[in-house]
Amino acid sequence: MKSMSFLFFFLVNLCVFAQKTIPGRIINQQTKAPLAYAEIQISDTQQILTNIDGSFSLKLTSDSQMITVSYVGFETKQVEVNKAIQYLQIGLNPKFEQLETVVVSGKQNTVEDLIRLAINKRSENDPEKALEGFKYSSYSKFIIDNESGNISLSADSTSAEMKTIMNEGRGYLSEKVSEHYYTKQAGNKEIVTGIETAGFNKPVYNVLSLEVNPLSLYKEDYKLYKTEYAGPLGKQALRNYQYKILDTTGGERPAYMIYFKPKREKIVAGLEGILYMDTKSLAIQKAKAQLLGAVKLEVIHNYKYFPEKDIWFPSDQTTTIKPGRGGKEVAVFGGTISIGAVQKKKGALDLLFPSEEISRDLYLTSSITNFDISLDYDEEINKPHSEISVIQEAIQRDSMFWQKNRQIKFDSRDRITRKKVDSLIKFRNIDRRIEKKNALASGSYPIGFWDLDLSKVFKFNNYEGIRLGFGGKTNDRFSEQFNFNAYTTYGFKDEAVKYGVGTQFYLNKSTGTNLNFYFSKDIRETASFQYLKGQNTFAILEPRFVNINFFYNYRTYWSSLEHRITPKIKSELRIGREEISQLFDYSFLNNGKAYSDYQLSTATFSFLWRPFSKFLSTPEDNILIEKGFPQFTGQIQQSFATLGGDFTFTRIGLKVEHEIKRLDNSRTEIIFEGNYGFGDLPLTHSFHANPNNPNRPKIFKRFSIAGRNSFETMYFNEFFSDRQAMLHLRHQFRPIRITNNFQPELVIISRHAIGDMENYEKHLYRDFATLEHGFSEAGLELNKLFGGFGLSTAYRYGAYHLPEFIQNFSFKFTLQLQL
């Protein structure tokens, strides 16, 4: 028995060592240009295709072997290859005969005709259009590895000599099992029934939010790792791609081999690849797409034919990213992979693997296999509001579950990877790094059990001068049931201390149900309307805040209940009491009495509705994975004089935001906001239209930073209303490509506002207008001239046009930074 085992391993090793891999390249002999997807026939049953740069790797199993190289429009060549060759470059000579036409339905068609027919038949071939519903299960494996594959069984991952597991073997491994459901009415739904990430007690949900394995190649845009490419069979495909028929395949269902290449690469991002299209139905049987730039990206789609439905359905897919050269980048985890490292936009990947320690032969692979496919699903989809749901049991699956559901072999290298990554992640405290990254994304920095609120550290405005402070809240290290939150700041110009303190109880984390109690003493801008939901919790810079000079004091006590009605609807109900005192000469005349100081008892309901956004629901949280538009923010506030308050009034606000993104990286933004107030409404609780023009006579004295949705030529405190409507229109043209690193963006802007004040005479501060004639301005921005800086100009026109040019004109910086 021992001798048989020895003989077996001897023969296996002999076969391995007998093989030799020879790299090479196929080129046009005359122009020296690479020939993408040239065919190399190795034997009667084995052939390979070159990559888009003409490269290939040939494995020889004998000392000498004859291969045949062919390409449409070129003469076929036979070459003898032997093991003495280190690198093989083969040049093919052009010829005039080409496969330019094919016969479909008894007619001759050019390749453009063929693609046009395939586009028209998408409704018959795209499973999401041709079928009323379907379901299937999938197993996927997500790996970050290195090409060398060197693995040492005895290596100690906690050793000081071992810089990173990336130089020893795989550095990241995640497995997932899902059930997928689709109906035309509800769309797609994925239920994750099992997930395991090596080294982490809790799964890294970032992996689930990536569109690693897009189901369809028929869509207008093909989204991969947060990057959008033009679809090779989209409506604009013939405008974005050029095509060539390379060959046809044999078998029961022959296919055309069609090569596609971007036609407007500097304008619209595109992939280069090959489509295997069924000669009868023109459906995709198989596809291979590549991108060669700063990275080498390769995607392979395989489809399975279902004769009862006469449709090809995706069966498996593999995506690989390797280091490359050039100027292109591919987004991963919110960052971009380039030459084996994450650059520019830092994301979770660089937290796992710091760039200075990553080997340059890094590559990333994601494989998915679909199984248990049913094309007659007609049941109701539960919880359709989140596109991906992770069940509670998913993170607690045992080895039997994985053995049953693995559709891709989990080999010895995978097992070694899991063991090594487990110890490495604990040693390098990777969980802590991810915790910091998540906190920073919301504007906090974790220090032990305390998340420091970065927005409270430093601010500046005309009234307070420099405002320094400290604030934040306790995190889950302190308690997983509640948090304490507090802040204190000091204004060096007004020499006043402001502060706030509160607590939040997590009643149900999965539905975002929280009970809050809070007290604060601070200042607030007069006539500001702050939505409880839909506002950014942290901004690197608030341009308007610097020039605000009309504030009032407030002391407030409130409690609120937050609840996520569905993943797409967040809501909050707040009951509070405010004590208002003036910092400037203002009083409100009501029932014959002038009020400078007053008290308010209020109830406020606010909501954020994002019907077209995509969400990931987990047992602990609800994660936004793709922001869709339009989205709606609404709020209604009622003040009660019968509950100890001085005034009864109602304030209503509704904001609609819409954004249209295009494949050429241009986009159009539309924001409409309406505010309406009635009753005994003091100026402190009326509305302004977000003015952002300092009250100074000269243009350069007004030079500041432009806001994104503010009126740049409207002066502070110039207009107040108790009812108003605003419309902001922004159109950003595609980036102006000067160099790979210098691509400024031109934006045209149009803004409009109209308003009125019903009881103007009650406000004993009369130096303002009310927008009843309508305010308009138009502007230009040239962004990203230097880092995040750019320039902005705007001009005021219409009913409120002022006598002198400089009074109507603004010239400012723009600043676009990402946390």
TrEMBL record:
Q: Could you tell me which species this protein originates from?
A: Christiangramia salexigens
Domain of life, per lineage: Bacteria
Any idea what this protein is called? Carboxypeptidase
Q: Which is an annotated GO molecular function term of this record?
A: carboxypeptidase activity
- InterPro entries named in the record: CarboxyPept-like_regulatory, DUF5686
Q: Where is the signal peptide?
A: 1-18
Keywords carried by this UniProt record: Carboxypeptidase, Hydrolase, Protease, Signal
Which Pfam families does the entry mention? CarbopepD_reg_2, DUF5686
Which Gene3D superfamilies does the entry mention? Carboxypeptidase-like, regulatory domain (2.60.40.1120)
